[in-house]
Design brief:
Blueprint (H helix, E strand, L loop, with lengths): L2 H16 L35 H14 L6 H9 L26 H14 L3 H13 L17 H13 L15 H6 L16 E3 L5 E3 L1 H10 L33 H18 L15 H13 L3 H12 L5 H5 L3 H13 L12 H6 L9 H45 L1
Antiparallel strand pairs: 1-2
């Protein structure tokens, strides 16, 4: 295999791990080594081959359930924690968790960082979260960012997901510095294009090729727009008024570009909003066949909502909810896709339990082990049980009362017969 092809293949694998594997155009490969099927992996969401996205979709499912006040089953969180390698990293999927991971090639930044987000949100696996963060810190590059695998050059998607992991655990990503003092935002901003680009590409984030040339990439931009805000996938619903998007100001300075994370996030949001407007509500797939990409559009909705851009987020949200686009059919039965929709709809302030007439939350929980009741639901059940017990007691009292009255009448009747 030629080196250049190998590099592109690895980048393709990263894209599969982060988003493309969740699109309708990608069909996972079948197991070739006789590994157990998903049906023999209790606790895992989804029935499709998890070889490429097992950890990723499980983490997203836990985050989506947390966002909608559904307590994920312990079986599901245990499954995710059980996928962790001995050194704290995560592979895409481990069919045999007794087999040691390949520390150099078998563990991935995106999977590790997202697993940390999922486990931190659901709780109960503090040690796994700490080990995951320690793995990320151990593999941080000198520029402050992360690559797809240990030692790989930093890229915007992996760096963004790692930022989200630290943010999810209450840590300031800016304080996670490399040996030379560079932090994740230093690396992230380096992937953003500025005023020296065409007007419709200003603010976009890009992937570097083998020679370091940056190529505009919408997937990188949705991830970076979220990370620049210091947030992961779990975003609170947008509140208050609308925060208008603000395009990068260039004036006469062609070298201008965002200097810090907030301005980088704002410029990225403006780019996404403009691109969505140009496409009448959606983002297009980067895959060869092109076309509307629901997963990427959901990512953009999430990022815009996270920045408080209510009006800008409403446009892709409307597109996702339009039955003519068949987004619900695209997501049905797929936990990764459903989770992305749930997280985006929730962040944009809509109701995932009734989105265009579809209960996305119910569909998501149906793809995995039976969900446990949330605290509020448990309280309701307890109250119902108490009411049922109370009703039961009164039924017993009533029965005894009726019985005693009946006996009284019987005794009274016998006494009258004796008197006669």
């Amino acid at each position: 295999m030629a080196p250049s092809f190998a590099v592109h293949a690895r980048r393709g694998a990263a894209a599969l791990a982060t988003a493309a594997v969740l699109s309708a155009a990608v069909a996972p490969a079948a197991f070739a080594d006789g590994s157990p099927s998903p049906a023999t992996a209790p606790g895992l969401y989804g029935k499709k081959d998890p070889q490429f996205d097992g950890v990723f979709r499980q983490s997203l499912a836990l985050l989506a359930q947390k966002a909608t006040d559904v307590a994920p089953p312990k079986q599901a969180t245990d499954w995710l924690a059980g996928q962790q390698c001995a050194d704290g990293g995560f592979a895409a999927y481990r069919a045999d968790t007794a087999k040691a991971c390949d520390a150099k090639a078998g563990e991935f930044t995106d999977q590790t960082a997202l697993a940390v987000q999922g486990l931190a949100a659901t709780g109960g696996h503090g040690d796994a979260v700490k080990k995951g963060l320690a793995w990320l810190k151990a593999h941080q590059n000198e520029d402050g960012g992360w690559g797809m695998t240990p030692g790989a050059p930093s890229d915007p998607n992996s760096t963004s997901t790692a930022i989200g992991a630290y943010a999810a655990t209450g840590q300031d990503p800016a304080k996670v510095t490399a040996k030379d003092g560079k932090n994740p935002y230093d690396a992230l901003i380096g992937f953003q294009l500025g005023c020296d680009q065409k007007e419709d590409e200003r603010g976009v984030f890009a992937y570097p090729d083998q020679k370091g040339k940056l190529t505009p990439n919408d997937l990188a931009t949705t991830a970076a727009a979220l990370a620049a805000l210091g947030k992961g996938y779990l975003v609170e619903p947008v509140k208050g008024g609308d925060m208008p998007v603000k395009p990068l100001e260039c004036a006469d300075d062609e070298s201008a570009k965002p200097k810090d994370a907030p301005s980088a996030g704002a410029a990225a949001a403006a780019y996404l909003a403009a691109k969505i407007d140009a496409n009448n509500g959606f983002l297009k797939s980067a895959m060869p066949q092109g076309g509307a990409d629901p997963a990427l559009t959901a990512d953009a909705t999430l990022a815009l909502a996270a920045g408080g851009h209510r009006d800008a987020a409403a446009k892709p949200l409307k597109w996702l909810g339009d039955g003519a686009n068949k987004t619900a059919d695209w997501a049905k039965g797929d936990p990764g896709r459903l989770s992305k929709l749930v997280l985006a709809v929730h962040a944009a302030g809509a109701n995932p339990r009734d989105f265009a007439g579809v209960d996305l939350v119910q569909q998501l929980t149906a793809t995995g082990p039976k969900a446990e009741a949330s605290p509020s639901s448990t309280e309701t059940k307890d109250e119902k049980k108490k009411d049922d017990d109370t009703i039961g007691i009164w039924w017993i009292v009533g029965i005894f009362f009726v019985a005693s009255v009946g006996v009284g009448f019987l005794i009274s009747g016998r006494n009258k017969k004796q008197q006669l």
